[in-house]
Amino acid sequence: AKSTHGEHVCFYEARMDEVARDRRALAKDLWQAIGRNEFSVHYQVQKAVDTQEITGYEALLRWKHPERGHVSPADFIPIAEECGAILDIGEWVLRTACAEAASWHNQAKIAVNLSPVQLGHVDLVHLVHSILIETGLSPRRLELEITESTIIGDKARALHILRQIKALGVTIAIDDFGTGYSSLDTLNSFPFDKIKIDRSFLLEAEHSPQARAIIRAILALGKSLQVPVLAEGVETVTQLELLKSEGCDEAQGYYFGRPAALVPDEAGPDIRRSA
Ligand code: C2E
Ligand code: CA
Ligand code: CA
Ligand code: CA
User: Fold this and answer.
1) Distance, CA of 154 to CA of 57 (rounded, Å)
2) What is the pTM of this model?
3) Strand pairing partners for 71?
4) How far apart are CA 105 and CA 9, in angstroms?
5) Are 200 and 218 in contact (CB under 8 A)?
6) Ligand 4 mean position, distance from CA 198 (Å)
7) d(CA 149, CA 180)
């Protein structure tokens, strides 16, 4: 198709308008989603690579939009962060995940994702503390997943908050490790308890010696810092074997289980919810 430069720009601007309108519409719906009961939390199992014992579950937010159906968190979380709705939503996820985990019969950890916006705008220490008291969840069972972008803003402030959260007995995991901006600097100055290797490295590991080398380097880093490393996105037995041979501590991915509303039966009757 032959289109002049002018037409092309016009079309592009119309598209951008449409995208912006769509984001505004979603933002408006996001503000009402809690009240309308449209959110739920799914849980994905995390296991020890050598024994395949369950070490925890990651809480992953799900949104069933009344007209659009399921919207991916990868699509709506950035919008929620931009419009500020993430503050209420993040609090809702934390409260719901802690309350649900407190009712499980086992003592598995619950890992909850934290948005950088939450660290910047609410009294997170107070919030975490009161939710733990309210739900009765032992602080030892709560892990907060943060990305490096959480820390690149006001470092001193972020560090102060994370130290106070750790003082409650809650642990901190660095999510999507290897994809951020200041990886080594982050490791050097932050009080984290786990490194999660981003899925992209494992995805390429079978075919790319470079990706394997990066995984190996992160594992070596974890060993020397005495911090356990979890690999994300394990889908095949081959990938699991690779992690095993490299000495990775924990893994999470479709191979062990997809995120689900109920903690799966494979964990045995002990882990089913009480009611
Ligand atoms: P994330 O924290 O890196 O979470 C892992 C994502 O990888 C999840 O996508 C999970 O379903 C997916 N996943 C797990 N195993 C596999 C696998 O073997 N193969 C593949 N292809 N994917 C796998 P999900 O649930 O769509 O969430 C996407 C992102 O949205 C999350 O990435 C996280 O950044 C964000 N998110 C989800 N829930 C929350 C939340 O409650 N709060 C905040 N702030 N962000 C959240
Ligand atoms: Ca995560
Ligand atoms: Ca991740
Ligand atoms: Ca990710």
Assistant:
1) 30
2) 0.91
3) 63
4) 59
5) no
6) 6
7) 7
The number of the ligand nearest the C-alpha atom of 60 reads: 1
Question: What are the strands, taking DSSP E only, across the chain?
Answer: 39-48, 54-65, 69-71, 109-113, 142-146, 171-177, 194-197, 229-232, 250-252
Q: How far is CA 132 from CA 6, 95, 169, in A?
A: 58, 8, 11
Torsion of CA 104, 106, 107, 109, to 10 degrees: -60
Cβ pair 197, 250 in contact under 8 A: no
Query: 75-126, pLDDT tens digit by residue?
Result: 999 999 999 999 999 999 999 999 999 999 889 999 999 999 998 887 999 9
Does ligand 1 come within 6 angstroms of the Cβ of 198? no
Q: Which residues place a Cβ less than 5 A from the ion ligand 4? A: 176
In this predicted structure, what is the pLDDT of residue 19?
86
186 lines ligand 1 (CB under 6 A): no
Structure tokens given for 167: 């003082």
> Other C-beta atoms within 10 Å of 138: how many?
14
Q: Is 57 exposed, middle or buried (0-12, 13-18, 19+ CB in 10 A)?
A: buried
- Count of other CB atoms within 10 angstroms of residue 83: 15
Residues of the chain with pLDDT below 70 are: 1-12, 181-183, 263-275
Ligand 1 in reach of 139 Cβ (< 6 A): no
Is 247 close to ligand 1, i.e. is its CB under 6 Å away?
A: no
